[in-house]
Amino acid sequence: MLLTLGLGFMLALFNGIVRDIGNVLSLLLTFLLFLTPVLYVKPTTGILATLTNYNPLYYLVLAPRDLVLTGTISEWNGYLIASVMSVIVFIVCLVVFHLTETRVAERI
Fold this sequence. Notes:
This protein is an all-alpha fold. It has helices at residues 2-17, 21-35, 47-53, 56-69, 76-107.
């Protein structure tokens, strides 16, 4: 949730400056949905396996799914790194949003 809020703050600022962000965002979210293994098993070889290893959403989706299905989290390291990065992204984006929101509002 924090990752989504942080990215939402930044995208709101960019949407105030560049109006096409809304259109591009829907396309990017569609690709991100297909790159995050939610309904399929993580690939073991190929470029999709490499992209999955660097996709923080994979770990944020995998941990609750593992808890529900098996009762344990299989990849603690990835989950902790993705969680810490989410908190950092949220804090940085919140600070940037509050510092620049008045300037963007004046520009509109």
